[in-house]
Amino acid sequence: MLDIDPTGILVRYNVKLEGELTPDEIARELFPSDILLRNIVEAVFEGDEDEVIIALKEAVSAGKDPITLIDDALMKGMNIVSQLYDDGVLFLPDVIIASHAMTDGIEYCKQISGKTHECKGTVVSYVVEGDIHDIGKKILTVLLKSNGYEVIDLGSDVPTDEVIQAVLKYRPIMLTGTSLMTTTMYSFMEVNNRLLENGIRIPFVCGGGAVTQDFVMNYELGIYCEDAAVVPKIADMIVQNRGIDELREKFHVH
Ligand code: B12
């Protein structure tokens, strides 16, 4: 007779083992206590696109700011899914479904935020070639727009040539690059060099997953920050004519 341990199979099919918590139970411990936020976080976790919108509508009509909900609820839900995926509790399909629900939520918040500002400046944003992880970029795009910037969003898996052409065409105040994988982040270096070859010295703000401050410090135009929510603050300083050294001084960890 084969000596098979059924644990893995039971876990895979979400069968509760004695004394063990199910993924839902583990996640619930991490949900926020505010019921309005909790409903949104739970809907992202469940990957329920309709419920995300219903819960967002409910929170907004109770007085919550749609842009703040991106950080406080949509991202919170996705971070829980990411954490449980890293811990081996959830699987890739769970992540994909949750990311779709989160993206729908971001689009909804963007539509209803209704903030209209005069345009403070143009920013070009992209995810590096070979990389399709675009949730962080979507967040920073919405945050920049809601803070009065026009964003030329080049999407994900963008070749270096396309980035350079867009910068030459739109002459932005800064470029933002996202990379979530150690295998893709090296193209930041190439973009930096091509910008310099073309005589362009704009801040190149880079972030996402495996990217670190030490890595970004290796190239002249690079500015690093961990959280996309900080990017509008960087843009505000650039508009006030602050240079790359000053931005590094202010936003880098010393
Ligand atoms: C969601 C996800 C996916 C989704 C992506 C959906 C999408 N549309 O983005 C799907 C399922 C498609 C996917 C696919 C793959 N994935 Co994946 N994925 C993840 C996961 C679980 C979460 C990432 C995420 O969206 N987090 C939520 C957002 C909000 O966080 P974020 O992107 O980090 O953004 C935050 C900051 O980084 C920052 N930020 C982001 N961008 C920027 C930009 C600037 C300028 C600044 C300042 C800040 C900033 O601000 C954000 C908010 O604070 C991570 C694991 C993890 N825990 O991170 C793996 C992960 C990134 N994936 C990984 C891998 C390997 C893959 C695949 C190769 C898997 C496979 N074998 O097929 C493919 C890659 C396909 C490709 N070519 O890109 C690895 C990468 C390993 C590495 N270090 O290189 C990770 C780390 C998982 C792991 N532990 O192995 N993935």
UniProtKB/TrEMBL annotation:
<dbReference type="GO" id="GO:0015948">
    <property type="term" value="P:methanogenesis"/>
</dbReference>
<dbReference type="InterPro" id="IPR006158">
    <property type="entry name" value="Cobalamin-bd"/>
</dbReference>
<dbReference type="GO" id="GO:0031419">
    <property type="term" value="F:cobalamin binding"/>
</dbReference>
<dbReference type="Pfam" id="PF02607">
    <property type="entry name" value="B12-binding_2"/>
</dbReference>
<dbReference type="Pfam" id="PF02310">
    <property type="entry name" value="B12-binding"/>
</dbReference>
<dbReference type="InterPro" id="IPR036724">
    <property type="entry name" value="Cobalamin-bd_sf"/>
</dbReference>
<dbReference type="GO" id="GO:0005829">
    <property type="term" value="C:cytosol"/>
</dbReference>
<keyword id="KW-0170">Cobalt</keyword>
<dbReference type="GO" id="GO:0008705">
    <property type="term" value="F:methionine synthase activity"/>
</dbReference>
<comment type="similarity">
    <text>Belongs to the methylamine corrinoid protein family.</text>
</comment>
<dbReference type="InterPro" id="IPR036594">
    <property type="entry name" value="Meth_synthase_dom"/>
</dbReference>
<feature type="domain" description="B12-binding">
    <location>
        <begin position="120"/>
        <end position="248"/>
    </location>
</feature>
<feature type="domain" description="B12-binding N-terminal">
    <location>
        <begin position="27"/>
        <end position="121"/>
    </location>
</feature>
<protein>
    <submittedName>
        <fullName>Methanol corrinoid protein</fullName>
    </submittedName>
</protein>
<dbReference type="InterPro" id="IPR003759">
    <property type="entry name" value="Cbl-bd_cap"/>
</dbReference>
<dbReference type="InterPro" id="IPR012741">
    <property type="entry name" value="Corrinoid_p"/>
</dbReference>
<dbReference type="GO" id="GO:0050667">
    <property type="term" value="P:homocysteine metabolic process"/>
</dbReference>
<dbReference type="GO" id="GO:0050897">
    <property type="term" value="F:cobalt ion binding"/>
</dbReference>
<dbReference type="GO" id="GO:0046653">
    <property type="term" value="P:tetrahydrofolate metabolic process"/>
</dbReference>
<keyword id="KW-0479">Metal-binding</keyword>
<dbReference type="InterPro" id="IPR050554">
    <property type="entry name" value="Met_Synthase/Corrinoid"/>
</dbReference>
